[in-house]
Design a protein that fits this description.
Helix content: over 70%
Distance between the termini: 72 Å
Strand content: under 5%
Oligomer: single chain
Structural class: mainly alpha
Largest sheet: none
């Protein structure tokens, strides 16, 4: 009979995966709320929601060490902040 060995999971890796999962889904839900707020004309709440979502996804990029995700969300953050500064 053959036995299959399952490698041990590092507790730090598992914790990081759980945190990333939570941040990813929370940021996604906040982004969706931002889209809904835009659709219903809830300004400036839509921008605040988008800022939280963008920051959350940037954090996911950091946790995953994914430079593409970090780049697109830094560009989005800078663009939003520039737009908010010029409108006020």
């Amino acid at each position: 009979m053959t036995t299959i060995e399952i490698p041990a999971v590092d507790p730090k890796t598992l914790r990081k995966a759980r945190i990333t999962f939570g941040v990813k889904w929370a940021a996604s839900i906040v982004q969706i709320l931002g889209y809904a707020a835009t659709g219903f004309g809830y300004t400036p709440w839509n921008l605040y929601l988008f800022l939280v979502g963008v920051f959350g996804w940037f954090a996911v990029g950091v946790l995953w060490n994914d430079r593409a995700i970090m780049l697109i969300h830094v560009v989005a953050l800078v663009s939003m902040l520039a737009g908010m500064a010029s409108a006020g």
